[in-house]
């Protein structure tokens, strides 16, 4: 589920982070840690360490989102590198091509920055997953967490726009930590506890995307932007949270992939990463070897479904802010109320219902959630009043709470023990690629054919992933 949002003065940035939750069962020695009441199997404590780590990471990551419009304005006026002026002209050309109003140029600019971040995740996740299958989860996680902390430190020092872009670049290539966290849960989970672990990760995402932007919004409202580098304080707060995450991982996380279960040669991990620069190889899961043919077919089917779903979903979701601002005249506060409502619904569902889903019902709920997103976006497209818009967005929240968590739980059971990181890295890369492409295509459709046709057509196209999942044999 990882949707990352910025809502400020009609601007919106969506990246994946989410985006996108995965795991798989390990062996019986790691997964069956004891019995609780009613024969219920206990979750490994490492799942809760991952929850805390992700919460720190996501709080730090989402602080920046409400600040982006103000940051872009700051660099427009104060950039000494010349990069902002060059990129602005490129974005202005795209904005004029679409016929978008002048006031949305910062939204499109933020969208391109978000797409860059997601594309870097797309490149980094499978490589990081493959390396973790050789070196182990913990050391690679520590490297990723260190890179993320460094990105916030660069942001704090970013007196010009080139440094800010460098900070986003370093943060993007370090974001393989999300798929590694899923791999850790895979290592320590059994079939019975896998769904609980994934839902707990979903709760971390929801909490991060509710609390983090609220903190950022306070900085956006109360910071004195007439002064110098007003963004230093929020960037240092993000750095502090990232440092806390690094400390938690270094002190509390144990290695969950024993040496005897790792790949034997580093060349295997490197060749795997290079293969994944080939789009066709990613969709075919070509790097996953020595598994039954039916498992590969299932992986390919679920991967394609996941990509198509997130591609359509992210494109429509990205333009929702345009719709609210342009059609309904929503202020920043109105938008904040809307997304607070959807965030709370997702958190409650993931913390109560989703985490308790039995293994046998995961596919059914995944299908249900994919079908539910269809009327959600159709209602949003047809909405002429806030009441109907809220109805569509509430259905959107319910669907989102189940969809990605259930899909990633399904894919997580495939692959051998030394391939879990690779499977999860590929799956997350598909999501990152979808989120890198979806907002751009969604923006083009929105401004070329209008909001109503875009949302209704997009919603109806989302029927296909649901139908396809019904036919997959898992």
Task: Describe it.
This protein has 474 residues and is mostly helical. It has two domains: 43-277, Growth Hormone, Chain: A; 281-473, Growth Hormone, Chain: A, CATH 1.20.1250.20. 73% of the residues lie in helices and 1% in strands. It has a two-stranded antiparallel ribbon. The protein is globular and about 60 Å long. The two termini are 22 Å apart. The relative contact order is 0.17. This is Major facilitator superfamily domain-containing protein 10. It is a multi-pass membrane protein. InterPro entries: MFS (IPR011701), MFS_dom (IPR020846), MFS_trans_sf (IPR036259), Sugar_transporter_CS (IPR005829). It is found in: Membrane.
CATH arch. level architecture of the largest domain: Up-down Bundle
Question: What is the number of helices?
Answer: 20
- CATH top level of the largest domain is Mainly Alpha
The computed structural class is mainly alpha
Helix content: over 70%
Look up the CATH topology of the largest domain.
Growth Hormone, Chain: A
Element string (H = helix, E = strand): EEHHHHHHHHHHHHHHHHHHHH
- Average pLDDT taken over every residue: 82
Spatial ordering of strands, largest sheet? 1-2
Largest sheet: 2 strands, antiparallel
Poorly predicted ranges:
1-38
Number of β-strand runs: 2
The whole-angstrom Rg is 21 Å
Q: How many independent structural domains?
A: 2
Overall, the morphology is globular
């Amino acid at each position: 589920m990882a949707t990352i949002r910025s809502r400020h003065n009609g601007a919106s940035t969506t990246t994946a982070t989410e985006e996108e939750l995965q795991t798989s069962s390990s062996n019986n020695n790691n997964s069956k840690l004891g019995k609780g009441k009613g024969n219920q199997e206990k979750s490994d404590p490492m799942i809760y360490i991952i929850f805390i780590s992700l919460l720190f990471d996501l709080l730090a990551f989402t602080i920046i989102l409400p600040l982006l419009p103000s940051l872009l304005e700051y660099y427009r006026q104060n950039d000494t590198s010349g990069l902002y002026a060059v990129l602005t002209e490129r974005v202005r050309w795209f904005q004029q091509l679409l016929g978008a109003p002048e006031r949305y140029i910062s939204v499109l600019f933020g969208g391109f920055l978000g797409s860059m971040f997601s594309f870097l995740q797309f490149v980094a996740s499978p490589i990081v997953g493959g390396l973790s299958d050789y070196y182990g989860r913990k050391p690679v996680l520590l490297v990723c967490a260190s890179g993320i902390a460094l990105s916030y430190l660069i942001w704090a020092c970013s007196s010009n726009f080139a440094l800010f872009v460098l900070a986003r670049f370093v943060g993007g290539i370090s974001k393989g930590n999300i798929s590694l966290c899923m791999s850790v849960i895979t290592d320590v989970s059994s079939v019975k506890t896998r769904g609980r672990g994934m839902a707990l990760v979903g709760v971390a995402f929801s909490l991060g995307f509710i609390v983090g932007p609220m903190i950022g919004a306070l900085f956006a409202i109360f910071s004195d932007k007439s002064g110098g580098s007003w963004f230093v304080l929020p960037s240092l707060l993000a750095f502090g949270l990232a440092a806390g995450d690094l400390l938690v991982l270094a002190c509390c996380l144990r290695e969950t992939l024993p040496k005897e279960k790792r790949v034997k040669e580093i060349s295997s991990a490197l060749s795997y990463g290079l293969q994944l620069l080939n789009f066709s190889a990613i969709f075919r899961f070509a790097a996953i070897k020595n598994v039954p043919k039916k498992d590969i077919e299932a992986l390919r089917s679920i991967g394609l479904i996941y990509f198509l779903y997130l591609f359509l979903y992210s494109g429509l979701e990205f333009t929702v802010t345009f719709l609210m601002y342009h059609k309904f005249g929503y202020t920043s506060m109105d938008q904040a109320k809307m997304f607070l409502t959807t965030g709370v619904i997702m958190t409650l569902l993931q913390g109560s219902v989703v985490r308790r889903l039995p293994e046998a019902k995961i596919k059914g709920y995944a299908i249900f959630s994919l079908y539910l997103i269809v009327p959600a976006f159709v209602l949003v497209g047809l909405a002429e009043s806030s009441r109907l818009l809220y109805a569509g967005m509430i259905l959107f929240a319910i669907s989102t709470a189940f969809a990605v968590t259930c899909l990633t739980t399904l894919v997580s059971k495939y692959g051998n023990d030394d391939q879990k990181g690779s499977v999860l890295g590929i799956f997350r890369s598909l999501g990152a690629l979808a989120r890198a492409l979806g907002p751009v295509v969604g923006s083009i459709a929105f401004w070329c054919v209008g909001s109503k046709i875009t949302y209704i057509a997009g919603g109806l196209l989302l029927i296909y992933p649901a139908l396809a999942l019904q036919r997959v044999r898992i």
